[in-house]
Design goal:
The structure holds 2 protein chains of 2 kinds. Chain A is built from 3 helices and no strands. Chain A is an all-alpha fold. Chain A has one domain.
Amino acid sequence: MITNLVVFAFIIGLLTGAVVAGAKAWARALGLRMSWWKWLLSGLWYFLLLFLLFAAFTFMGEGEVAAGWKVLGIAVLILVILGAGLARILLAGRTPPET
Amino acid sequence: MKKKSENEENSWSRREFFKIGGSVAAGLQMGAVAGSGLAAGKDPSTHNGWQHLGDNTQFVDRSRMIRQGPAYEIVGEPLRPEMHESAFGRQSLIMRDMRQYREMIRSFDAGEERQEGMGNRNALPRGETSPETTGGQQPGKDETGFPPMDTFSEPMLSWYKNRPDLYELDKYRVEEILPKKREDEEKYGDYYTLINAWSDSWSTHESISEPPEISDFKIGGRSKLKDPMPFKSRVHAAQLIKKVAHHFGATMVGITTIEPDWCYNYKLRGSEERGSYEVPKHWKYVIAFGVPHQWEQVNSNPNSGTSFDAYSRVSIAARRLETFIKSLGYPARRHSPMDGYDLIAVPYLVKAGLGEQGRHGIAITPETGSNFRAAFVTTSLEMEIDQPIDFGVKEFCEHCQICADICPSGSISKADSNEGMNTRGYRHWEINQTSCYNFWMQSMGGMGCRLCLIACPYSRKSNWLHSLARKVDSKDPTGLVDNGLTYMQKNLFVAPEAHEYLPPPDGHFANFREPPEWLQVKNYLDIETTDPSIGD
């Protein structure tokens, strides 16, 4: 069990590193002028996505499938609304994309 | 110029790599999170139920290991095993013949006429059932001297003649090993006090057929306990008792003092007299402990569940704990579902800090919510006591009412609070026990209901999600989390309405959740059944 957890944490850590590197590359490609608080907001949005995904599938795993789907539906709604707001903030004042 | 262009190209390709790699990693991460969420939800170790490990206890796939042919190669005439072949089984026969041999010697010494044979030599010793149960019988202190081989009766005589090596080994045990062991026990026995008490706990159980002043002081057929073993302190005593109680099968343990108001007022078990009685003076402390029900079946209440799985387990734990305490020289009496109670359960669970009393009248614990059954041991052993706890149940129950809404018999109060309620002088939530009991009689499956046990939000699994909710709720003084969780509980989770649990035509014997597949007749038995959910 502990071994599984360690392996899982290792894989998630690697993926997180890759996601961060990818996010930086995307920000540069889209010409976003990122500051520390924009990164923080983006990170929180992504954390919320993972959290709600984890919660929804935990419900499904414990046999509360209907609760899982409901949480997933609510999650999509919340994430789309917050994502739209976040996108407006990130896209505001962007420079021409680098090619 | 060319170099710059190459750099740009490299830079572009590196960025593309990170963009694509990052996107793939994000997708993989979401997949991993969803998958681990699914695993966290399924994880049987988070079930608030007794030792539910799913299929994990027998985790090796034996189908890959199957070999052809019989289990053993036959190399001679197959024979059924005789009792005297086993060293354990032989022991009772040896003792029978040893006693008869000594009786014969005594008769000779007294000048009595020698009897033909030595009594009923074919009779098996009393209490003998199988080799395994007779192995513990050993000659007493005065029973030395192993009889000569030819004085043994059948089947031992023939056996020893064929196996003189075993005769010598048995003789050596009786004449050399056992006297030495008695000396060792005299000298070193105290060093093994706890191990012996532990062993007694698993092997010795007294029936409660006498009043406390007798039965609480008896162990293993002895009418008197040995002198009490002094503990280093009350804290040490409490620590040890809790540790062993967990090993004996208790999931939660707390200790408190006796409260005469919470002892029944009509009869003590084992006593002939009926009516009020004085609480025995040696009942100074109450060890309270609980065991949850098996997870899947408690979820399939009221019509496909039972009380007896947890009843049985907690009662066995109580027997073991009672014996352990007695083995250390202290009087003790168990109070459990299978052996009966002389006291009422819930107040002692609350006083011993195991939980708080909920709207449904039963205790709610932080570990398994309402899903557990309790037993107690009363004793004179001085122990450090626990204090009542507050983890927000009072406030939560005032907001929640899920148990009251789902109760098929409407026995649980829907009042805003328990103010004004008075049960034998104490304020706490009270239920209509008679209408509750009437529904027990209506329900199918194992008698009873237990729906409120499992509908209680505190009884949800101990996975990260519900544990987090419980933890946050207990820290919130505003009641906002209470309301939020109750709202989610009522709107996220699907359960039948109260009337659906009733018999047809008002309901269809619904269950809170589907029974596990191994409790469904259609999966295993070849019999005709009528599904109450389909109707006439």
